[in-house]
Amino acid sequence: MVRLEEGVGEQFDEAQLRFASFACRPGCGLCCYTSPRLSPSERTQLLTIAPLEVSSNWTTEIPARPEGGACMLLSDNRCRVHEGRPSPCAMFPVSVHLSWRAQASIVLSCPGVDLSLLHGIRRGGEDAAPTGLAREVAAAAAAVNRVAKADRDRIERRWFRAVREAESGGETVDGARTELLSHLPSVEPEDLGEESLPESSAGVDRLPMFFDERYGRVALAATSQGIEVLVLDERGGAPERLATLPPVELPPRLTARGADLFDSYRRYFVARDAFVGMALADDSWDPATPISERLSGDLHEIGGTVLARARIRALLAGGSGELLDAEEVADGIRATDADYLDRPTVGAWL
After folding, report:
1. Cα–Cα distances in Å, from 84 out to 43, 51, 131, 162, 349?
2. N or C: which end of the chain has fewer CB within 10 A?
3. Residues pairing with 115 in the sheet
4. Across 41-50, 65-74, 250-259, which has the greatest mean pLDDT?
5. Please, are residues 215 and 318 in contact by the beta-carbon 8 Å criterion?
6. Rounded Cα distance, 226 and 262, in Å
7. What is the CA radius of gyration of the chain?
């Protein structure tokens, strides 16, 4: 555990970083297809180390190039200000969610993260410290320490207020999570719908992305014919249309290895405080809906999205996508995890 500075909050919870192994994947750059937040002190530092690279108009973020392009400071998949990069970049692939505590987890969409950590956490046993993440964990803890006490207190009050309201029907959040973990739901055909998948006309920056060994940065968009697969360029502009694939209508079958990885991922997601925070922040639910039903509904959706995108990626690779092994399930996790970690929560993301 990393102790936060006095008055800032509880311990920095690193439990979901156990067994993690990370090595940045050369040529990937997936994490740079975003507009990272920029604090005033970080902006000052960037102006000092790269005055010709940083615009005076960048006050709260470093913009991405339009139409799905990468951060303005990425060039040939290399950051031009790597040593002075802002906090969201310095901590990646560590992600921190604030609620009653500061909980760190790994963004599993990153191809540099070894997904075997999911098996290690699920099976328990002797803890293994994360490897290859020392600088990222330190940057995440430092980011939490910079959060003002008043802001931490406000987030904590909002969290507990939302939890009390959700528990007013007699269920507890912890009890609902425990029950869900003991009976992981089966994925049904109705869970596979990509209703939330935007069309490319909504803006490429809104599309889920993943890294593909053959095509680089790839995005998915809905079309009237099915799922459109787009290849992104760091310079932005109209993406290359790689393929249009049929919608996924039936859950694919899983091998024993595929099912084990799929269940391990869902357990990992349920253990994230953000899983509860997203359910509590989702105003599409009737406030009277029991918290167990909200969490179960969200896990159905998450599981369905993983399997649908796993099948899409299997089709893209020339397979049938009807039977998924662990490697195909891993592809679905990579194409899903970051998309869900972008969702609103009654807590707060760093």
Report:
1. 9, 12, 23, 37, 21
2. N
3. none
4. 250-259
5. no
6. 24
7. 20
Helix (H, G, I), strand (E, B) or coil at 3: coil
Tokens for 346, please give them. Answer: 């009654």
- At 158 the three-state DSSP class reads helix
CA 68 – CA 140 distance, rounded (Å): 27
Work out the number of other CB atoms within 10 angstroms of the CB of residue 154: 12
Sequence-ordered list of residues with C-beta below 8 angstroms from that of 335, at least 6 positions apart, any chain: 109, 208, 210, 220, 306, 309, 310, 312, 313
The pLDDT tens digits for 116-132 are 999 887 776 667 889 99
The span from the CA of 301 to the CA of 284, in Å, is 14
Tokens of 200: 């490319």
The three-state secondary structure class of 127 is coil
Token pair in block for residue 19: 């067994």
Q: Which helix (H) or strand (E) holds 102?
A: strand 102-106
Token duo for residue 40? 């005033």
CA 303 to chain centre: 14
**Largest Cα–Cα separation, the chain:** 59
Other CB atoms within 10 A of residue 60 CB? 10
Among 89, 90, 131, residue whose Cα is nearest residue 114: 131
Q: Determine contact, residues 148/4, Cβ cutoff 8 Å.
A: no
272-308 pLDDT tens trace = 999 999 999 998 888 889 999 999 999 999 999 999 9
Question: CA–CA separation, 228 vs 316, rounded Å?
Answer: 11
CA pair distance 300, 322, nearest whole angstrom? 19
Count of other CB atoms within 10 angstroms of residue 293 = 14
Phi/psi of residue 97, nearest 5 degrees? -115, 130
pLDDT 10s digits, 235-267: 998 889 999 999 888 999 999 999 999 999 999
Contact of 133 with 22, CB cutoff 8 Å = yes
Cβ atoms 120, 101 nearer than 8 A: no
CA angle 69/74/77 to nearest 5° reads: 95
**Structure token digits, residue 161:** 């207020």
Q: Give the global pTM.
A: 0.93
DSSP string, 317-330: TTS--SEE-HHHHH
Query: How many CB atoms within 10 Å of residue 43?
Result: 18
